[in-house]
Specification:
- By secondary structure, the protein is α/β, with parallel strands linked by helices.
- It has a single domain, classed as Aconitase, domain 4 (Alpha-Beta Barrel).
- It is built from eight helices and seven strands, in the order βααβαβαβαβββααα.
- The chain has a seven-stranded mixed beta sheet.
- The longest helix has 14 residues.
- The protein is globular.
Length: about 200
């Protein structure tokens, strides 16, 4: 998993509440178990018309936001089914951070396991960040995980809270497997002791 320390990038305003995981990555894309290649399906029912042509009104199709790395979204982002394909699709598209007032629990947990930082802010702070995001590619946001703050283009800052363990994992690029491998020496020692004391196994 890639480390998340500081991210400076374009933030796309997604002024929709209750964005569910089927909107993020529709069910027809769930046949794969690969984490790559899903970016093309991200928000596909809003990004594309039935004939496959791009919807010019959707935010990620606008020139200023095609390379957005941050989403500023409405309340209750990631609700609906528990599909892990949702953060996979965001990450494959290039989104490393989602900012909202609230997230569905399973989606929120899945983000951390896949190197995406979900940031919860107050409605007042979300309104400020949405305003920044609506300025287009010239107004980038900086996410500083160590300092736990979002810096706007005009120098304003928004502080955010995060669980210390999750912060540690993101800063060091540790998913569940990475956390386990940090204890590789102890695991090997346990196995060696087990073989010595129980040779019949």
């Amino acid at each position: 998993m890639d480390k998340f320390t500081t991210l400076t990038g374009v933030a796309a305003p997604l002024k929709i509440t209750n964005v569910d995981t089927d909107m993020i990555i529709p069910k027809q894309y769930l046949k794969t178990i690969k984490r790559t290649g899903l970016g093309s399906g991200l928000f596909s029912e809003m990004r594309f018309a039935e004939d496959g042509k791009e919807n010019p009104d959707f935010v990620l199709n606008k020139p200023a936001y095609r390379k957005a790395q941050i989403l500023v979204a409405g309340d209750n982002f990631g609700c609906g089914s528990s599909r892990e394909h949702a953060p996979w699709a965001l990450l494959d598209f290039g989104i490393r951070c989602v900012i909202s007032t609230s997230f569905a629990d399973i989606f929120y947990n899945n983000c951390f396991k896949n190197g995406i930082l979900p940031i919860k802010v107050s409605p007042e702070d979300l309104a400020k960040l949405m305003d920044d995001a609506e300025r287009g590619a010239n107004a980038t946001l900086t996410i500083d995980l160590e300092a736990q703050e979002v810096r706007g283009p005009d120098g304003g800052t928004v502080k955010f809270d995060i669980d210390p363990h999750r912060k540690h994992c993101l800063l060091h690029g540790l998913d569940d497997i990475g956390l386990t491998m940090e204890k590789a020496d102890k695991i090997a020692q346990f196995e060696e002791t087990a073989r010595a004391t129980r040779p019949w196994h």
